[in-house]
Amino acid sequence: MKIVLLGSGNVATHLAKALKANGEDVLQIYSPNLVNARWLANQLSAEAVDDLSHINQDAELYIISVKDDAIAPVAASLAHVNGLVVHTSGTTDIQVLASHVKQAGVFYPLQTFSKAKDVSFLNIPLCIEATDQTQLSMLRQLAFKLSEKVYELDGQKRKILHLAAVFACNFPNHLYAMANEILQENDLDFDIIRPLIAETADKVMSNLPENVQTGPAIRNDETTMSKHLGMLESKPEMKHIYQTLSDSIKLTLK
Amino acid sequence: MKIVLLGSGNVATHLAKALKANGEDVLQIYSPNLVNARWLANQLSAEAVDDLSHINQDAELYIISVKDDAIAPVAASLAHVNGLVVHTSGTTDIQVLASHVKQAGVFYPLQTFSKAKDVSFLNIPLCIEATDQTQLSMLRQLAFKLSEKVYELDGQKRKILHLAAVFACNFPNHLYAMANEILQENDLDFDIIRPLIAETADKVMSNLPENVQTGPAIRNDETTMSKHLGMLESKPEMKHIYQTLSDSIKLTLK
User: Fold this and answer.
1) Sequential DSSP letters for B229-243
2) What is the model's pLDDT at position A254?
3) Interface membership of A72 toward B (CB under 8 Å)
4) Which chain A residue has the Cα nearest residue B125?
5) Per-residue confidence (pLDDT) for residue B11, from 0 to 100
6) pLDDT band at A226 (very low <50, low <70, confident <90, very high)
7) Nearest-CA distance B95 → chain A (Å)
8) pLDDT value at position A25?
9) What are phi and psi for residue A241, nearest 5 degrees?
10) B251 touches chain A (CB under 8 A)
11) Which residues contact A209 (CB under 8 A, 6 or more apart)?
């Protein structure tokens, strides 16, 4: 399929590589920053463009993978293309595209992408949506080429998923960072806690998290919790987070 | 090595099985609840006891793996044994044992254990401590039989580690549970978010978490954050957690 990718960030980069690896024809990479566009385009033997008026008009699929508030202005420049225009955002309504382009859709990969780390798309849930059934069918076929996990979700469910993803990914990662801060200040290496992080995630691969909660709060072990709060006396922000999350865990006690 | 295990909870169960699998001689399992003692002892061909006065006096190692506040009373019953007495607690000082028994030590596996899920001990950090160098050496040898990751840590560092573990394990698991609550209320399956959880943990196996933070807060994407807070209007507790953790992530913005 002839594809134009608008964006060069984490999602765009990983998606572009997956499309290329699956034999799709990525014609162009657009970025307002030509260096970024060239950096990604070179890896894909695609053309780099930094001017929206130079976008190829004959592609079958345009993937807008930019910051949420840049989606509408980029879409506005694609008003005359006949191909399907999708965005990759968890929170942006399909109408933001549909009000500008002829054929609108969504292609949201539910994953955390960092340039530092390769991921296999095969296991990444792809959430798709389109205003037209023919276009949806095309998107479904493309999605199943990349991943075994394809979900057809409306905007409301996609937004719910995006919110849940913040709880399941962004916040836990921040807590890992806090653990590392505690360790480093005491000359302990993050390595020592990596097996615990891996097992905590692995445990919920075959269990529901509410059934495998451990730790002082779920045991209502007030002695340990007050020791921990004492150790955080010089870190009011962390102490507040400890208290807030412990209180919330205690609320789940039957 | 002749070992008596005092306790039959998650840690005791997993530890007992690992000891047995490594050819150690688990003589007895003690629990004040005889059914629990028998349940575990049967799996190990050990003797089940529910009376501390019936503990074998000739073992080389006594492992106390009970709730923190039960450690001292159990240790008191081992005042006359010549073997090494260790506990498996992250937060309890070695002195709680040393004030009761002849030889005291600590054998703290830094992992989250649930009866529902087997774990391999090989990758579990074992944190050891002993008041006597000969006993420490014995503990070190045992630890390296079970795991490749053995750390000799004093009580202060062990307590730091335990605190960090709450941030790296117990709190993230609770956030997974919140994600599941959000999903279930909207007829979405937890399955859809499992690859994200796995990748979030996997990413910090080779990166430091502060370097791979993603999400609306680290982008300072106020539009998305206020959408999310709006979606949590009917859940004040989750809304408070969202706000607290987002504020904390924003503080790390350079």
Assistant:
1) HHHTTT-HHHHHHHH
2) 67
3) no
4) A192
5) 93
6) very high
7) 16
8) 97
9) -65, -40
10) yes
11) B173, B174, B176, B177, B179, B180
Distance CA B143, CA B1 (A): 12
Residues A123 and A145 in one domain: yes
Contact B123, A193 (CB under 8 A): no
Q: Does B220 touch chain A (CB under 8 A)?
A: no
Q: How confident is the model at residue B24 (pLDDT cuts 50, 70, 90)?
A: very high
CA distance A105 to B225: 23
Among A120, A153, A186, residue at a domain's last position: A153
Do the Cβ atoms of B110 and A195 come within 8 Å?
Answer: yes
**pLDDT over threshold 90, residue B196:** yes
Same-domain pairing of B92 and B22: yes
Q: Which chain B residues are within 8 Å of A157, Cβ to Cβ?
A: 186, 188
A145 and A198 assigned to the same domain: no
Chain B, window 174-213: residues with a beta carbon less than 8 angstroms from a chain A beta carbon: 174-180, 182-183, 186, 188, 190, 192-213
Whether residues B13 and B46 share a domain: the answer is: yes
Q: Could you tell me if A107 and A9 lie in one domain? A: yes
Over residues B31-81, the pLDDT tens digits come to: 999 999 999 999 999 999 999 999 999 999 999 999 999 999 999 999 999
Q: Which of B153, B179, B197 represents a domain boundary (last residue)?
A: B153
